[in-house]
TrEMBL record:
Domain called Response regulatory: residue spans: 2-116
Gene: rppA
Key words of the record: DNA-binding, Phosphoprotein, Transcription, Transcription regulation, Two-component regulatory system
Domain OmpR/PhoB-type, chain residue ranges per copy: 127-225
Protein name from the UniProt record: Two-component system response regulator RppA
Cited SMART domains: REC, Trans_reg_C
PANTHER family with a match to the protein in the record: REGULATOR OF RPOS, RESPONSE REGULATOR RPPA
Classification lineage: Bacteria, Bacillati, Cyanobacteriota, Cyanophyceae, Leptolyngbyales
DNA-binding region extent: 127-225
Pfam family membership, one: Trans_reg_C
GO CC annotation terms, alphabetical: cytosol; protein-DNA complex
PROSITE patterns: OMPR_PHOB, RESPONSE_REGULATORY
Length: 226
C-alpha cells in the first residue's frame, strides 16, 4: 500500500512517515500544498494523509481538486480544527475521515488501516470525468468533448490525456510520461511519445481552438491554456 503524507510540520511529518514505514507502507512525503497537489494528481496512492493548513494549496483544496476530477482515493485529514462547521466543511470537500491534532499514533494507524480496508469498487457510480479549460474527458468510454464535438480516442491516447489533465499546468518530463504509458516490458521506440502527442494534438486541437499541449523543448510537456 502506498501513502502520500502532506504536512508542513517537518518535526511531525518525518516521525509519522517513519512510523508508517515500520508498519509496512510505502510513503512519500511533501511539505507544502503545491508539491502535495502535484504528487496527489499522479493517482498512484492508496491513501492520502493531508494537513488541513498548508503553504500553497491547502489540504482542503487538494481534496476538492481530486474529487472534481473523479479521483476517489481515500483522504484522511490532519487538523487542529475541531468545530462542527469545520468537520462538515472537510467532509463536504470529499474527506473520508479526519483526526484532530494532537493525536495518538495508535489511533491514527487504526484509522489508516480502516480506510485501506474499504472496498474501492463501490465508488463512484457516475462515469469518471476530467475537465481542464474547455476540454472534458470521459475516461471510462475514452471520449473527449470540446466545443460541442465528441472526440474518439484510442486507449493509449486516453491514458495520455488523462495523465496530462490530472496535472494541469505542471511540467511533465518525457521520462515521467513514458513511465506512465508504457511498462518496462513494452520498450517503446525513442519517438513513440512524440508520435502519441502529435496524434492527440490533431484530435483535441481543431483549427481556431486554443492549444492545450505545450512543448517545453528538451524537457517535456505542459497541459492547459494557463
Amino acid at each position: 500500500m502506498k501513502i502520500l503524507l502532506v504536512d508542513d510540520e517537518i518535526e511531525m511529518a518525518n516521525p509519522l512517515s517513519r512510523s508508517l514505514l515500520r508498519e509496512g507502507y510505502e510513503v512519500d512525503v511533501a511539505y507544502d500544498g503545491d508539491r502535495g497537489r502535484q504528487l496527489a494528481g499522479q493517482g498512484v496512492y492508496d491513501l492520502l494523509i493531508l494537513d488541513w493548513m498548508l503553504p500553497g494549496h491547502s489540504g482542503l483544496e487538494i481534496c476538492q481538486n481530486l474529487r472534481s476530477q473523479g479521483d476517489m482515493t481515500p483522504v484522511l485529514f490532519l487538523t487542529a480544527k475541531d468545530t462542527i462547521d469545520d468537520r462538515v466543511q472537510g467532509l463536504d470537500a470529499g474527506a473520508d475521515d479526519y483526526i484532530v491534532k494532537p493525536f495518538e499514533l495508535r489511533e491514527l494507524l487504526a484509522r489508516v488501516r480502516a480506510l485501506l480496508r474499504r472496498p474501492t469498487n463501490i465508488e463512484p457510480t457516475a462515469t469518471p470525468r476530467l475537465k481542464v479549460d474547455d476540454l472534458e474527458l470521459d475516461t471510462q468510454n475514452q471520449v473527449a468533448y470540446r466545443n460541442g464535438r465528441a472526440i474518439e480516442l484510442s486507449e493509449k491516447e486516453s491514458q495520455l490525456l488523462a495523465y496530462l489533465m490530472r496535472q494541469p499546468n505542471q511540467l511533465l518530463t518525457h521520462e515521467q510520461i513514458s513511465q506512465h504509458l508504457w511498462s518496462d516490458s513494452e520498450k517503446p521506440t525513442s519517438n513513440a511519445l512524440v508520435a502519441q502527442i502529435r496524434l492527440l494534438r490533431r484530435k483535441i486541437e481543431a483549427k481556431g481552438e486554443t492549444s492545450l499541449i505545450t512543448t517545453v523543448y528538451g524537457k517535456g510537456y505542459r497541459f492547459g491554456s494557463g
